[in-house]
Design goal:
With 454 residues, this protein is mainly alpha-helical. Helix content is 75%, strand content 0%. It is globular.
C-alpha cells in the first residue's frame, strides 16, 4: 500500500489545529480518534435498528421473530452496493461527503424503521413493506459511510499506525453499542411507539451532528496529479469511465479478488459462531440464560484483549516487524479454528470442560483476526491502480456483508438439521463448530502470502 497520504502542493493547504499531523506524517492520534467517533455514531444507530427494534417487534408486539430476522438480513444484502458507493467517491476524489451522506441515510432509515414498527401494530403488511424501504436505507447508509470511512482512514494514516487505527475504529464502534444500549435502553422504558420514535430520532440526530463535527476539515486538499509514491499519475490511474469497468478492473486484480474470498470465508465462520455459543451452552452444558449471557461476556472480553494486543504490536518497531497484520490475521484464523475444534470435541465426547477459559481464548483469537483484517484492508486498499480505492474497499465490505447475511442462517440451520438427524445436541453442535473451524483454516490458507510481510 502507498506509504503516506498525498501531500498538498501548497503547504498552507495542510490542515492545522484539527488533530492532524502534517500530510507527510498522516493523521495524528486525535485525528484518528475523531474518525473513530464516526464509527461510534454508526454503531449507536445500527444497534437500535438491529437490536432494540428487533426486540420490540418480537416481545412487545408479538410478531414472528422471522420478520426482524429477515429485515436484518436484508440490510446486509443491500450492502452489496458498497463497491458502487466506493466508486462514487473515487470519481469525486473526496470521501467525507460520502461519509456524511451515508450517516444521514442511516439516520433517516432508522427513524423510518421506528415509524414502520409502530405501523405494524395496526397494519402488519404495510408496516413490513415500509420497513423494507427503511432497512434498505439503513444498509445503504452503513455501506456508504463505512466503506468511505475506512478508505479515508487508510489514506490519511501512516502505515505504522494502521493496526492501532483499525483497533480504535472497532473499539469505538463497540463503545457506540454499549453507550446506546445503556442510555437509550433506559429511555425506552416504558415502551410506547411515541417514546421509541423519540429515542431513535434523538440518537440519530446526535450521530449525524457528531459525524459532521468529526470530519470537519479532516480531509486535506491535495494536488490531483501526484500519487502517494511521488510519481506523476498515468492514464492507467484515471478514473474508470463507469462503475462496471471499474469493478471489472478491480476484480481482475488477483490480490483484491483473493482478499474478498478470504473476508467472506472468515466472516462467514465468525458470524455463524456468534449466534451458536448461547444455545450451545444451554443445550449441551445446561447453562441458564443468565449464565450463557455471562459466557458471551467472556468472549467479548477476550476479543477486546485480542484487539488491544494487535494495536500494541504496531507501536514499536520490533513488535511491528514480528506481529504484522499478515501474521496476526493468520494467527487469529488458525487460533479460532483450533478453539472451535476444542469446543466441538468437548461437545461430541461430552468431556465437560470448563467453557469460560476456552471461550475467552476463542475471543482473543477472534479479536486478533478481526482487527488485523481491517488493518490489512487499510494496508492493501491502495495496492493496484489508483482511484479504485473505494471500489476495492467496497468489494471487501460487500463480501463481509454477504457473509454476515448468510452466516446466521447457515449456522443455525445446520445445527437444527444436525440435531434433527442425530438427536444429540452435543454431536450436532460439535459438527457445526468443526465445520466453522475448517472455514477459518480455509480463510487462513487464502491469506498466506496475500500481502507482503511487515
Amino acid at each position: 500500500m502507498s506509504a503516506v497520504p498525498l501531500s498538498s502542493a501548497n503547504p498552507s493547504d495542510e490542515p492545522v489545529s484539527l488533530g492532524l499531523a502534517p500530510a507527510t506524517a498522516g493523521l495524528g492520534w486525535l485525528g484518528i480518534a475523531r474518525l473513530g467517533l464516526v464509527q461510534a455514531s454508526l454503531g449507536a444507530v445500527v444497534v437500535l435498528a438491529t437490536g432494540a427494534l428487533n426486540r420490540i417487534m418480537v416481545l412487545e408486539m408479538g410478531l414472528p421473530a422471522l420478520i426482524p430476522g429477515l429485515l436484518i438480513a436484508w440490510h446486509y444484502l443491500i450492502q452489496v452496493i458498497r463497491p458502487r458507493l466506493g466508486h462514487g467517491s473515487d470519481q469525486g476524489g473526496r470521501r467525507t461527503p460520502w461519509v456524511v451522506g451515508g450517516v444521514f441515510a442511516l439516520a433517516l432509515g432508522a427513524i423510518g424503521a421506528a415509524v414502520a414498527t409502530a405501523v405494524m401494530a395496526r397494519h402488519p403488511l404495510a408496516g413490513v413493506l415500509l420497513a423494507m424501504v427503511d432497512y434498505s436505507l439503513i444498509g445503504a447508509g452503513v455501506g456508504c459511510a463505512g466503506t468511505n470511512l475506512l478508505v479515508l482512514l487508510a489514506q490519511e494514516t501512516a502505515p505504522s499506525r494502521r493496526p492501532a487505527a483499525a483497533t480504535m475504529a472497532w473499539i469505538m464502534m463497540i463503545v457506540g453499542f454499549v453507550l446506546t444500549t445503556a442510555i437509550a435502553g433506559r429511555m425506552l422504558d416504558p415502551y410506547s411507539p411515541t417514546r421509541t420514535l423519540a429515542v431513535v430520532a434523538s440518537v440519530s440526530a446526535i450521530a449525524l451532528f457528531t459525524t459532521l463535527l468529526a470530519v470537519l476539515g479532516i480531509e486535506p486538499r491535495r494536488a490531483p496529479a501526484v500519487r502517494p509514491t511521488g510519481r506523476p499519475e498515468t492514464a492507467a490511474d484515471d478514473p474508470a469511465p463507469d462503475f462496471g469497468a471499474a469493478l471489472r478492473e478491480v476484480w481482475a486484480e488477483p490480490q483484491a479478488r483473493r482478499f474478498a474470498s478470504f473476508v467472506f470465508l472468515a466472516m462467514l465462520a465468525y458470524s455463524a459462531q456468534e449466534l451458536l455459543l448461547d444455545p450451545f451452552a444451554g443445550a449441551v452444558y445446561g447453562y441458564s440464560p443468565g449464565a450463557s449471557t455471562r459466557l458471551s461476556s467472556y468472549q467479548h472480553g477476550g476479543a477486546l484483549l485480542g484487539m488491544l494486543l494487535v494495536a500494541a504490536s504496531g507501536l514499536w518497531q520490533v513488535t511491528r516487524e514480528v506481529f504484522s497484520p499478515r501474521v496476526s490475521t493468520l494467527a487469529g484464523c488458525v487460533g479460532s479454528a483450533a478453539l472451535l475444534g476444542l469446543l466441538g470435541l468437548s461437545a461430541i465426547l461430552h468431556l465437560g470442560w470448563s467453557l469460560p477459559p476456552v471461550v475467552f481464548i476463542l475471543g482473543v483469537a477472534n479479536g486478533c483476526f478481526a482487527v488485523s483484517a481491517i488493518a490489512a484492508m487499510m494496508q492493501m486498499v491502495s495496492q493496484g491502480a489508483r482511484r479504485r480505492e473505494g471500489v476495492r474497499m467496497g468489494l471487501w465490505g460487500a463480501a463481509q456483508a454477504l457473509a454476515f447475511a448468510a452466516g446466521g442462517v447457515t449456522g443455525t440451520g445446520l445445527s437444527d438439521l444436525a440435531r434433527f438427524w442425530w438427536q444429540d445436541p452435543g454431536l450436532a453442535y460439535g459438527l457445526v463448530f468443526g465445520l466453522q473451524g475448517l472455514l477459518f483454516l480455509a480463510a487462513a490458507g487464502l491469506a498466506r502470502g496475500l500481502w507482503p510481510k511487515g
